[in-house]
Amino acid sequence: MLARFPFQSRLDHYAAQVRDAYNHFGISxxxxxxxxxxxxxxxxxxxxxxxxxxxxxxxxxxxxxRQLATLGGDDDGEPRVLGVARQIVEGAGCLLDLDRITxxxxxxxxxxxxxxxxxxxxxxxxxxxxxxxxxEAVGRLAATEPQNEVGPVSDPVAEMGxxxxxxxxxxxxxxxxxxxxxxxFFESASxxxxxxxxxxxxxxxxxxxxxxxxxxxxxxxxxxxxxxxxTEVARAxxxxxxxxxxxxxxxxxxxxxxxxxxxxxxxDLEENLDYRPLGAWLRRRRHCCSxxxxxxxxxxxxxxxxxxxIAYAAYGDAGWICLVATGMLALVPAAVMAGDLVNALVxxxxxxxxxxxxxxxxxxxxxxxxxxVVPSMLTDRVEIEVLLRRLEQHHMGNxxxxxxxxxxxxxxxxxxxKMPDDEDLLTQAEAGVRDLNQxxxxxxxxxxxxxxxxxQWNKAEGCWMGWxxxxxxxxxxxxxxRGKETTFEVQVGDLDxxxxxxxxxxxxxxxxxxxxxxxALIGTLAHPLNRA
Length: 532
Prior knowledge:
This protein is α/β, with parallel strands linked by helices. Helices cover 58% and strands 7% of the residues. α2 runs antiparallel to α6, α15 (290-315) runs antiparallel to α16 (320-349) and α17 packs parallel to α18.
């Protein structure tokens, strides 16, 4: 029976056993002493075993281990999930595969549901059990090995004995456990995930993994705090979302389970679970008053620093005029110092709140059609070539049938509405966009656009220019999307798509977004908790 936290001493023991066996068999092989076939497996794959032991150390810290449910509810007993892992490994003869693991876990959960923490711990417990079996087998083989039999190293054709089969199977299993995507296994085995997938509006299943995991951790935290089953907490969130969907007066946000797990409806869920913690109230007050707290801390610290300087001046018998001057001169540097200090403290102590996202990695839906726009100016032929090349790069890094790319352009400020080079520059830009559509487009999709504005007289500036420059281009493009009149006198591209655009991503002319970043941004915009 394992002690309540055996990992460090037990893993040290396993690591020493593996090292000793490796050295022992290595010397025997070097001296041409016959060694078991399993020794060849260990000598060739010892790094896999060592890596598995290191992975166990990393994945099972002391606090996590002590949170796991034990057999019989005994605080000093063996973790329940370790017992499950032993059943799986022993039933498979140390040769594991994911299907066998999944079936066994599902059968076990028919009687006793595992918590999410136990499901995440299962791969570590499987590694531990496999390493344990391997060390037992290697120890027996080393103890029974002839010490002076000289001959061929080992015969690969020879039939393996039971202990040799355990070593071979254990190494194959450790390799399988290392290469497996456990996120897929977890979601297929988690009963909480199964409940949350009944989200009344169906968004849960379409979110990215990190967002789904954030929801599940919210369920786990509430279950620990209330003493309820995790599935009971998940069903409460689903029930509240379903009740809100039946009410015509409820906000559409309230129809989604995330509203109750990580957003404004968290209070409703806690009250539904009869949970009213003081810490949760303080947390909500902090979020509601975060700006006031931030600015208040800067103001208080500024006054404190300024007050210290004024007090120092007063200590030196300075007159009231000198004190006022000291306070005024100290105000700006004190405010700068206070702002830097508060920002540093906030960055260090307050964790960022990550926005939930939909998973659009496989493609942007038609109802989330988006256009990436680059506000720029047609100044000369070289600049136009650079703009066209950058637009092409944007498409190559974020290609999608429902993602378009557009240049929003003006001519430079001028003393006249039209200048001699205008026509040639505009012709070059139009031809470039058409060429891009010819090369990358298809009969159903032409992803590139050009929207060019005419100059207007600006009395204050005393020149002809694009209205409000960059800000004006974006404002007018918004009007264009809504079917209103604009000064975009040249429009190149499939204009039937323009009224269907739902989101707009704006890039500076010199900005190069990371590959597939548009899909992540759009997935964030489309999440029901982020919608305006």
